[in-house]
Amino acid sequence: MEDKSGSNFECEAGIIPQVETKITVKKKLLSGECILIDKKGTSAVWKLFKNVVYNNDENVFTGFVACIKCKLPFKYSHISDTSTLIRHKCVIVNTKDDAQTSLDSFVSKKLKTIPDKLKSECIEKSVKFCIVDIRPLSIIDGSGFKELGQFLMKVGHQYGDVDINDLMPHPTTVSKNTIKMAENHRNTLFESIVLFIKTIAAL
User: What are the TM regions of this chain, as residue ranges (predicted)?
Assistant: First the structure.
């Protein structure tokens, strides 16, 4: 492809011979016209994303990278950052799974047997938590509460006895990040729905 000056448009992995879109790249990945190859980079996101190249001798870069799990393509060049890729649903899920696996391993190795005295103290603290903060008893069995508890255990393991006030965020900070997280998930879902509709319409 040539720009107004007549020169070829180059990217980090070669010359892009034609303009591709998410839809065409997705189709070519499914048909085998395009394949995924490793992307060099220091960011952990490249464990889940690879360059999309044409399946020929040159393996010319298409201008897109794609998730190795769901094959969703994202436009990318050497001047792009990874912020959009990091917000991708598969990256979020993978990060959560890795963290949970690490925590599960820590718990199984370090806390094989919990003393009855410690269990009794945990019951007492749980009752006090529900009474003081006026929370339903069922909150103790909530997956979100347990995930937070596992995280706090990990912090305690790494940094020892720390002041909880130095770690826990202010409610305003939680509120702002809740809105931001919801918007990120909404945008990702919207992109997936639009891509699906366009793919179906193009068939």
Answer: none
